[in-house]
Amino acid sequence: MNTSRPADHSRETGSKQAYRGQALAPRRRSGFTLLEFVGVLAILAIMAAFMIPAVVKRVDIAAWNKENADLIAIKNALVLQILRSNSIPDQTSWAAAAATWTTRTVSNITTNNRGYTRAFLIDPNLNLPRAGGGSLPYSQTNNAGLSSRPVSARLILVSSIARTNPPVVSGVPSSASFNDLWNTPPNVKPATWSGWPGTGEDICIQRINLEPTFYQLILVNRDASSTNGQFSINGTGSTIVTNGAVNSYFLDGSVLSLYNTNGLSTRFVLKRNISFVFENGVWSGQITDGNNAPKAPFNSTNLVASFAASASAFFNAAWNSGAGAGGGKGSSQSAVIGALSNFMLDYSMWANMTPSFSVHGAAPLGQVPIYQLVTTEAGNLNTYTGNGNWGLLK
User: Which one of 85, 160, 224, 350 is separated from 370 by 20 to 30 angstroms, measured CA to CA?
Assistant: First the structure.
């Protein structure tokens, strides 16, 4: 019994000693060492060097798309305001005109989301021919319009999304600067901007050509002694068409009103080039007797003589040997004139029974102008056939 105690005591002592050894040994802590932390930072820096330019590029692309969409909206608003107000602003009033059609303030028109200034440029060769000069601003008033077709009626809206403001200010630049900017392809820096620090991808450009928005209006008054052939544009007061004709250019959407003896005759919205003739007290879309000189109210002799001259010129023109009854391939001039004359005669008989004609049921058929045209010239038309025995109207 006594001999076992020293052995047990010996084991206990060894266990305590082992525990004490473990307690005295240094513990290993969890986490990064300084070297590991530096390594992680280096890896993140390398990743950022690759990723940040791509992120910035995407942000710039989004900003360019936003700015380009804004310039398109401003451009459309400006054109709509020009057509609605019948006036074209200059560099001092363009932003206010565009703001009228948008929910933006004037400052939001002149400055983009990145704080850079938008420029409004006018072609230095622009000419809107009219009394008082052809530069901007332009206001369509007094039924005058432009005396001739507009020249170089071009405008540019330009802005930048990076670096700094565009190297141009609103107004009239040099011809070289304007044309260079007008002809610059997308994402290319204009040649005249060589000193500007930005790139072509930083520039937004919108071009406006106002030349197609003007339409030609020709009005001819062939009743020289009449003061009833009048017109007005946008209801600004009627004007007599004097000195033979009006030949002017008006903005798209202008309202043309034509007046005759009874007042307002008709009204048109200008959407194309158009002409009208005031003759025999009414406005029509064509000249009726081919006489270009102003004349007194309707004279059937003039009408008949003009038709006879036209018929004679047509009949005496070079004949197509492949046409005619013999060849079976077409018709002769005499047959064409005969068919036309027959149609006109039939039409005159029908027209005499139409309430819209002033002689409806109140005068003999012989007083109908077209009937006079055909019957009065029957003898003359006979001679055009070359055989007095079988005239065109027989």
Answer: 224
Total residue count of the chain as it appears in this document: 394
pLDDT at 319: 73
pLDDT at 249: 95
Which residues on neighbouring strands pair with residue 263, listed in sequence order? 260
CA pair distance 107, 117, nearest whole angstrom: 10
Backbone angles phi, psi at 156, to 5 degrees: -135, 135
Question: pTM of this prediction?
Answer: 0.64
* Residue 347 pLDDT greater than 50, yes or no: yes
Residue 56: how many other CB atoms lie within 10 Å: 11
**CB-CB neighbours of 68 under 10 Å:** 17
d(CA 25, CA 45): 38
Cβ proximity of 339 and 345 under 8 Å: no
pLDDT at 390 over 90: no
Among left, alpha and beta (phi > 0; psi -120 to 50; other), residue 35 is: alpha
Looking at residue 214, the DSSP 8-state letter turns out to be E
Contacts of 120 (CB under 8 A, 6+ apart): 91, 94, 95, 155, 156, 157, 170, 171
Distance of CA 105 to the CA centre of its chain: 25
Q: Is the peptide bond before 364 cis (omega within 30 degrees of 0)?
A: no
The region that residue 392 occupies, defined by phi over 0 for left and psi between -120 and 50 for alpha, beta otherwise, is alpha
